[in-house]
Amino acid sequence: MIRLGRFVTGVIPLAVLSGVLLAALLMMNAATQNSAVFGRVYSLLLLVNVVGIVLLLALILFNLFNLIEQYRARVPGTRLSLRLLILFVLLSVLPVSVVFVFSVDTLNRGIDQWFDVKIEQALDDALLLGRTALDAVKQDLIKRAQEMAADLETVSSAAPGRANRAALTALNNLREIHSVTELTLFAPDGLIVASSGEASLGASTLVPDRPNETILAQVRQGMPYASLDAQGKSGLRLRVVVPVYAREVGAPRRILQAIQTLPPRYTKLGESVQTAFAEYEKLVYLRGPLKFGYTLTLSLVALLTMLVAVWAAIFSARRLVAPIRDLAEGTRAVARGDYRKQLPITSHDEIGMLVASFNDMTRRIHRAQTQLKRSQQEAEVQRAYLETVLTHLSSGVLSFDSRHILRTHNAAAVQILGVDLGYAEGKSLEWVGERHPAMAAFVIAVRAAMATAQSEWQVQVSLEEGRRTLIARGTLLPALSGRRSGYVVVFDDVTALIQAQRNAAWGEVARRMAHEIKNPLTPIQLAAERMRHKFLKLLPPEERATLERATRTIIEQVEALKSLVNAFSDYARAARTEPGPVQLNELVRDVVELYQSGHEPAGGVAPIALRLELDERLPILVADAGRLRQVLHNLLLNARDALAGNPRPIIGVSTRLVAEPPRRFAELKVQDNGPGFPEAMLGRLFEPYVTSKEKGTGLGLAIVKRIVEEHGGAILAENAKEGGAYVTIRLPLEEVAARPAVPDETPARAAGRQLRGKGSS
Amino acid sequence: MRVCGKSDALRAWLAAWMLGLALAAGAEFRIAEIQPKLIGDSLQFAGTLDLAFTPKVEEALAKGIELTLVIDVKLNRVRRFWWDQNLGRWALRRSIRFHALAGQYLVSDPGASADNWESFTVLADALKYLGALNELKLTLPEAPPAGDYSVDLRVGLDIEALPTPLRPVAYTSLSWRLNSGWTTWGVAR
């Protein structure tokens, strides 16, 4: 359907149709001018023209309809097409109309002028003259015919056979005498009685020409008949028919017909006059139809010209506007973002150049767009890469713009600072400090460092009353186009690192103490014993008691010092663990049993209630059972000491299976309802010699921590909200548990694991 | 009311058109009676055609325009359960013209050579002669078998034989539309 529409609106059908119509009109014009060849098909040509013009009109109307539909649909370019069309139509149709009107007028006048009144009169006169001349001959023939009829009155026709012969003889004689071409005698009923004709006449004249009934009837009534007969090509002849009266009474009245062929000269002149007159009469009569025919031809030509002009106007308008419409569509496409649009270059004129420029422009835009997209993609990849790196960075990262507004942060920053920074982006550093007082020290330090506008700086910040230490490093970001730039601040929680350093120092102290103090203790003890042994017998009894008391004190104190030094030595020494399968719940029950039965406090102190809450799902873990037992002893002893003076002392021991995919832990928790850890000590609980007790080495929790770390676990000591303190230990299960820590591990490395343990708890 | 007015106008226009048709019909060609007869391999006719010209046509004739009449004849074999079978078709032409010098109407004789013209002083006689089919005899290629036959006959003015300029006028004017239309006649044997 669309293809048909395109075909109908195309140039070929209209051009062919126009050509055919023009040819038909030319032939029709030739036919109007009496051309014999085209005259025969005149009506057909006329029909072809009318049908063709109707078709042409239909095609043009279809085109116009299409154009108007497009105009209504606001198709780009149709407005201009329509304007051009109207202009072209006015330019072509108006002149053609004027020419047509004047042509028709001139044609009519011209045709009228052909017919001269004088010629018409002359021809009338010539005809009249001819008739008059022939009338004279006719009158003469009538007279002679009547004479001949009179002569024939005596010829009897009573007996057919004889009489006919007599009549024939008479007719022959009369014809000779009167020099007529043919004489025929008819009976009253019209039958031929006798006939005489010139011998020179051909065989066709053997049968005499019989007058028709009208003539016979007229003659029967006694009136002679005379006429000039035209005989096609054989010329003119006079026919006279007269009655032949009978002499005898009662005899029938016969009829004589005399035919006289006119002399060739008469015939020629007569025919000439007749032909000229007839032709002229015909022409005069055909004047009206001729005008009609010419006007019709002219109208068809004018109509064809106008229609072809209208069609040419439609075609030209469309052709002219097509590239402009394409351009309009192209610009729309570009506006929509389609930069790949290329328009066909149909001409090499200014519009063609414009189209070429447009194509060049879209090509350049497309190239630029592609490059931009590629750059964007690359930037996106870079950004994603950086984001991934930042997200997985263990250091906290914050970036600030030139006005110290927070722009970006990573997950580690949130974790280290313990503040949700999602909603703080776009806010100033001060705003964050006001909302989170815990961060105040960090904010003040960073702000002060940024205010120095140094390209790089480093600050150390203590948070939570010195329990946590952060180290922040700031770097000035590269400035864009001379603007002031912001900072990127990278910070780490170095609490664990400092703790590890402190642990290492303590280890060294312990080792040296063990080395430096333990060595002289044995000689001191031996000297004291020897002194006692040697002088006790020599001294008088009253002084013996003094020596006895003094040496015992020395030996006891040296023993005490030894045990102290041994404890330090234990702490400092890298213990060798012997891992094996351990059922933690069983181990807990064994140790707790000892405290329920064998450690009953004396002196009216309330007995400690031990509450067990053991998770039976707990699997067997691989660990050093003896060292775990030591851990449990230390914790229970610590708890018992903390509950001294408590009217209702309770110690809770619980185990639990903790799953934090992909890892699983066995969790041991020891809780008491005592006074809890002093707030100031919370950060340094696991350091050696940090204790709130009057007695004790202060190494209990430090050793516990050491053992837990040797097992790859983590430890946490906190005060409970409802009062009291608790210590939670997490030991890794399965493959982690199967790889106990190496014996010669340094305290610093163990501290690192504590940090991880804390992070996961 | 408006509808009424419209229909009145339509009725008046129709009446005028019918009247025009009736007037034209007064000068129409008509086939009065025809008695076709099959004798051997020839088809013979007896009968007359009623021919009358309209004043316009008479005027054209008087002004020297030769008029040609076409008599179309079709011979059919009648079949009861099927369409009739056409056995032959003839188109016979007869002309009439006016001879100004002689003051006579000349009618071409269909029986004789084309050059032979019958002359008549009165147009009515000429038309009567023109309409006489008594001497008409058409020959078939072979004698048709026994059966029922019919003849379709039509007589009309041949506009294509008119001078070229007159044809558009003749085609567009009712006065020139002279045609009897087809009539069917039984054939006697």
UniProtKB/TrEMBL annotation, chain A:
Keyword Cell division: no
EC number: 2.7.13.3
Gene Ontology MF annotations: ATP binding; phosphorelay response regulator activity; phosphorelay sensor kinase activity; protein kinase activator activity
SMART domains: HAMP, HATPase_c, HisKA
PROSITE patterns, sorted: HAMP, HIS_KIN
Occurrences of domain Histidine kinase (ranges): 512-735
Any one Pfam family match given in the protein's UniProt record, by short name: HATPase_c
Domain HAMP positions: 318-370
Membrane-topology descriptor: Multi-pass membrane protein
Recorded catalytic activity of this chain's protein: ATP + protein L-histidine = ADP + protein N-phospho-L-histidine
Disordered: annotated span: 740-761
One CC-aspect GO term: plasma membrane
Transmembrane segments: 7-30, 42-68, 80-102, 292-315
Main localisation: membrane
Presence of the UniProt keyword Nucleotide-binding in the record: yes
Keyword annotations: ATP-binding, Cell membrane, Kinase, Membrane, Nucleotide-binding, Phosphoprotein, Transferase, Transmembrane, Transmembrane helix, Two-component regulatory system
Compartments, as annotated in UniProt: Cell membrane
Biological processes annotated in GO: osmosensory signaling via phosphorelay pathway
Protein name stated in the entry: histidine kinase
Organism field: Candidatus Muproteobacteria bacterium RBG_16_65_34
Origin organism lineage: Bacteria, Pseudomonadati, Pseudomonadota, Candidatus Muproteobacteria
From TrEMBL, chain B:
InterPro entries given in the database record: DUF4390 (IPR025500)
Pfam family name, one: DUF4390
Protein's name in the database: DUF4390 domain-containing protein
Protein species of origin: Candidatus Muproteobacteria bacterium RBG_16_65_34
